[in-house]
Amino acid sequence: MIETLSRDMQAVGRTLRLELPILQASNERDLDTAFATLARLQAGGLVAGAHAFFNSRSERLAALALRHAVPMITPYREFAAAGGLMSYGHSITEQYRQAGIYVGRILKGEKPSDLPVQQATKVELIINLKTATAFGVTFPLSLAGRADEVIE
Asked: Would the pTM count as exceeding 0.90?
């Protein structure tokens, strides 16, 4: 999955004539190394993939992004709530709720193979205006007005 996402992002980068270095992080030390690399590359921003490792470190990622002055987006609301610039992705709370409904149905006797496959259909955009101000980033009203949540 990571390889597919990396390949897709590289294809988009080529279309936009942007160089998109792909950095990997799977432990605390990797995070420090990645942000040091971003500084050396003078990267204009960072997109984190959907991974539990990143979600469980939302506060640390937000702090590193601010310290290294790298605007960053993740798929997790928790990142923006922790001081990150923005998030755009599926609601983890909604995913847990759906999983709970499935567990309840199974415990009541339904066969898992009879349950329909479901996929999240709504994504949430969360913008942290306080962090945007710190980065000198402004969001057009047309975008901020459509955000599911604006943190001030």
From this structure: no
